[in-house]
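#random but structural
TW: two for the price of one
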Amino acid sequence: MCPLWLFPTYAVTDKVSYVGAAFPKIKYQSDFTPSLTVIADGRNITSSILSSMDSVISLDFKNEWPSILTKTLISTALKATVDVAIQKEAKEQFGVWGQLAAKAITAAGQAAINIADTRTWRSLPKEFHYMRLDTPADRSLTLAAGTQTQTVKLVPGSINVVYVISTNSIAPILVDQFALKP
C-alpha cells in the first residue's frame, strides 16, 4: 500500500495537468502464525523467535527514508517539468485543443506510472523462529502451526534440520528437511 500525494496545481498554474508523488508505506502482515509447536516423544515444544523482519525492515526503511523522499520529489519535479514542456509544444503546434489533448494524455500517463516501489517489503517473511531438540526415538515429529498440523518422518541422520514455512494462519504449512550428518 502506498499513499499518493496530489498537489492541487490548478490553484497555482494551468500549465501542469497533474503532479502526484507516491511514497511507500510499511504495512505489517497481521495474519501470521506466531509460533510453531513440535510434538515429539510425548512433549510439546514451542519455537522461539529468532528474528522479526518487521523490526529489521522498519529500521532499514527509517534509514533509507531521506533517500526515498529525495528521489521521489526529484522524479515528481522532473515529470512536472516535462509535462509543462509537452503542453507548451502542443499549444504552439496545435493550439488550445492540442494543449488540452496533451494535458489529458500526460495526466493519464503520469497517474498510470505513479506507483511506489514496494517489492522489498512484500517478498520477505514476517518472522524467523528456531527450535532445537533431540531426535525422537521413533524419528517422527508432529508440527502444529496455526490451524495446520503435519507429521514428519525424519530422514536417516544423526543431525536433522526441518524447515517449515507458514504463509498465514490457515494455509497449509510447507515442510522440507535434510540431514547434516547422514
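TW: number two ↓
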Amino acid sequence: MSKSVRYRIFVITLLSGLTLLTSGASAQKHDGDHESGEVHIHDAHNYHLGIGISGAYLTGEQMVAPGIDIHFLRQLGVERNWGIGIGYEVLLKDEIHNNITFMANIHTAKFLSINAGPGFNFGKHEGETEYTPALHAEAVFEFDVKKVHIGPVVGFGLDKDEAHFSLGVHLGYGF
C-alpha cells in the first residue's frame, strides 16, 4: 500500500471517528431544558489554560516527533460552552517546527472540547526563518478534578509541506 493511500485512509478514519464521537456525544443531555429538549453544557470558568504533551507523526518525513501544545482560551456565551483563544505548538525534531494558531473552541459534550483554527508555522530552514500558513485542530477528552482538566488529546496539523497527527495527554486549568 502506498504512502498516499495510507495517509488518505488515516485521515478519513480520523475524521469519521471524530464525527461519530461528536455527533453521539452532542446528543447527550447535560443540564437539559426538559421542556425544549435543548442540551446545555456549562463550564464555570471564564478562562482555560492547557498544555499537552504528545507524539506526532509527520507525514512528509515519515517520523514520530515529541510535541508540546499550549493554549489559552477565553470561554464565552451564557454557559461558556464556546470560546476563542490562541495556541502554540512545537514539534521537536532536527528542524524545530513552531505553530501559532488563532483558535475557536467548542464543548460538544461535557467531556469533549474541540479546538481548531488557522495560523502559521515558523522556523529556521537552511539558516533563514520561514513562515507558512497552517491549520491546527485537536479534540480534548477532559475529565474534571476541581479546576483541573486531564485526559487524552488527538490533534491534526496541516501546512503546505506536510501534515501531522498527534496523540497525547492534555492537562488544563480553568479559572
